[in-house]
Amino acid sequence: MGNKKFKEVLEMPILKRFKTKYPGVFFIEGSSIVGKPEKIYYIRYRKSGKMIEEKAGRQFQDDMTPAKAAGMRADKVEGAKQTNAEERQEKKTLEEQENNKPTIERLWEEYSKQRPHNLNYHKDRVRYEKYLAPHFSKKETCEIFPLDVDRVRLKYLKTLSPQTVKHILALLKRLIGFGIKKALCPPLPFVIEMPKVDNIKDDALSEDQLKTLFKAIEEDTDPHAGNMMLIALFTGIRRGSIFNLKWSDIDFERGFITLRDPKSGKDDIIPLNDQARAVFESHTKSKSEYVFPGRNGEKRTNAQKAINKIKKAAGLPKETRPLHSLRHYVESDIMGRVA
Q1: What would the pLDDT profile of 268-311 be if each residue is shown by its tens digit?
Q2: Distant-in-sequence, close-in-space partners of 228: CB < 8 Å, separation ≥ 6
Q3: pTM score
Q4: Is the Cβ–Cβ distance between 44 and 26 less than 8 Å?
Q5: Distance separating alpha carbons of residues 203 and 228, to the nearest angstrom
Q6: Vertex 245: Cα angle to 243 and 248 (nearest 5)
């Protein structure tokens, strides 16, 4: 403490203590929040060989009287009531225990810290905050029962698709699995039942739909979206491989495309047919090494907005997945159908 501060402390007036008729109970004169004179009561007692002095309460704000203060003192001397310091420590301990409870909310917080905050993370965050948190955030795994999960599954199946509900419950499974791996929580004593999803979808487009799609692609101003759709159509390349595609992967001279990271996890080589070659040769080349770059020339992670714009312009059904649908067509058959 500096000399100036120490001097200020020494010059501070010492408040006078007034005894009451009760042993170990005294008060000082203070002011209420409205400026009215108010007595502030304190108690003194010895516990475990240590002299303790604590505030009992204010005359008006806490409705404190000498008799009440004496009763508090008696409880604390006899051990029926904790000292203020003990109460604060117990409260702190309980808060720490509460904060450290392996609830689903805490599992999500820890899980979030270790996840890259990419598009998939943001989708999971919406699933957690909108669908899981209202039902499970304050529960530990030992407090979750099959009926709880069944109710959530059946509730959301009334308004959401089975696939969406499956994603929601899959996130719950991942959070609990993460907690088990990190020794934060015990496993569930049951298996979470997933909704049945019909993965068989007829995404086939009619001849008229294909023609309107080609027209929408031709009229669209986005430099990448339409060409990505055409490459999916002419080569059958998956969405992720299209995003990964670099100019160095295209061998125009020998007529091959090298896929560095297809779904199989292994590099693959496919023919560069005439239709795909024409798309690549007409495609605007930027400074990026990627054929269809994302922001700042980096690898693209999403194209949904731009592709949906074309899909809407072509009048395709809402459930149509353009890149997924187009890659399943045989290029020669497509060209024959839309010629």
Answers
A1: 888 898 888 999 999 988 899 999 999 899 999 888 898 889 88
A2: 242, 292, 303, 307, 323
A3: 0.42
A4: yes
A5: 18
A6: 155
